[in-house]
Amino acid sequence: MVLLQPDPFLNELTSMFEKSTENGSVWVTFKRSSMKSKLQRDKLGEDALEYRCLVRASTIKKTISTSISAKDQQRFQASYATVLKAHMHALKKRERKDKKKAAEVNKKQEKAPKKSGTSTKVTA
Amino acid sequence: MVYISSWDEFAERSIQLFRADPQSSRYAMKYRHCDGKLVLKVTDNRESLKFKTDQAQDAKKMEKLNNIFFTLMVRGPDADITEVTGKEQAETQVTKKGRGRKQ
Question: Do A9 and A64 meet the contact criterion of CB atoms below 8 Å apart?
């Protein structure tokens, strides 16, 4: 597993989303971690540990990870939200029963023949 | 293991679960583009809470939960999460961007 800096991680995550559009899933896991082994943890004692948020992303072929400190958190969570928003467009909008594609086609058709209502009413 | 159907219940219980044992809890999400499905999971290796959806509006709620978990995991399980929302976070981020003269 590769430990990346936050920005390269987001780039890589973007490409993982792009590669798994046809089939497959993307997993993203958050975990509170001190990034130390159990042995080191016992040696240092609970108080000396500095906790960060370990973020892993994986597809069937690849796993990447990054570690987020308090300093990076705000920036990372905003960019992470942007990446998700950009790629999670297969989800359905509102309680529409038909598939998203069908919904989109309908929308376009509804929009096109809209009348410019007010100007037509001229009383003779 | 059963899926929880109510978002609010899932969010509340998953935060409780994490706070009870921050060391061994994790928060995972799975997104399948081809099926248009999103699954969220929080587990401490003993109990596991899952939430499944295909609705875009739930992805927005998830964004807020993401931010809550980021805060809890970076700042500790006792961190204050009452003010954590997507928008406020984004705003504070902009103000912090100034290139301070720290020398």
Answer: yes
Number of helices (H), then strands (E), in chain B: 3, 3
Residues of A in contact with B66 (CB under 8 A): 30, 77, 80-81, 84
Best of A19, A30, A34, A73 to mutate (most B CBs within 10 Å, chain B): A30
Angstrom distance (rounded) from CA A13 to CA A65: 10
pTM over 0.80: no
Across A55-77, average pLDDT = 92
- Spatial separation of the C-alpha atoms in residues A57 and A51, rounded to whole Å: 19
List, for residues B52-103, the tens digit of each pLDDT value. 999 999 999 999 999 999 999 988 888 787 776 544 444 444 444 455 565 5
Candidate from A21, A31, A53 with C-beta closest to B33: A21
ipTM metric = 0.77
List beta partners, residue A58.
A27, A63
